[in-house]
């Protein structure tokens, strides 16, 4: 069990054993799967909400996935700016940041992914990101990488997200489908919960019936028979002979 999970269990155990109280603590899982504890009830459409009575609540929110307090300021401006530069939906970038790092600019995964958009060091280097923990550089690099993946998979956001998580070669290997990896499928689902994921744009005139293939060309050749040393030798050519008899064959 992780340290965060043990802490969450300890908090819940203390809350469950508390005597009658003057406040309520609500717990639920958000769209990313993080455990949230708050003194405010969540929206009515949140499932699996548990409620605990506590004696002296000081208010506030606790979540197992930290969120930067400055998100509503600098990060949103950076996301809007970098998304516009790359022609990527800002909501898609926001969803990726939320699922990847919970807006923690110093997040480091067990695999070594870094920062808000969890860039791997080699990917960051390819994108010209020298400081992956710098929010602006990280968002610039992550958004540029998303743009590359969208171009590679013809604008299909679902496949681009799968490639962002599992790598583009994995998506290619499974015939341009989301790979059957539980982690990748869960990742795409979590991002979809943050923002509707767009399918690939339909090619122009897709609804119209495809034109039938042209009929095969009829090639003409010319057959001649020549006697050499008492033997008849048949020859074929695509040009008629200069003299003598010949047969036209289609």
Give a description of the structure.
- With 250 residues, this protein is an alpha+beta fold.
- It folds into two domains: 3-63, no CATH class; 71-194, Lysozyme, CATH 1.10.530.
- Helices cover 38% and strands 15% of the residues.
- The protein contains eight helices and seven strands; from the N terminus they run αββββαααααααβββ.
- The chain has helices at 3-17, 71-86, 90-101, 121-126, 135-152, 157-166, 168-173, 182-194; strands spanning 23-29, 35-38, 50-54, 61-63, 221-228, 231-237, 247-249.
- The protein has a four-stranded antiparallel β-sheet, with helices on one face. Strands 6-5-7 form a three-stranded antiparallel β-sheet, with no helix packed on it.
- Helix 2 (71-86) runs parallel beside helix 5 (135-152), helix 3 (90-101) crosses helix 8 and helix 6 (157-166) crosses helix 8 (182-194).
- It is elongated and about 115 Å long.
- 24% of the residues are buried.
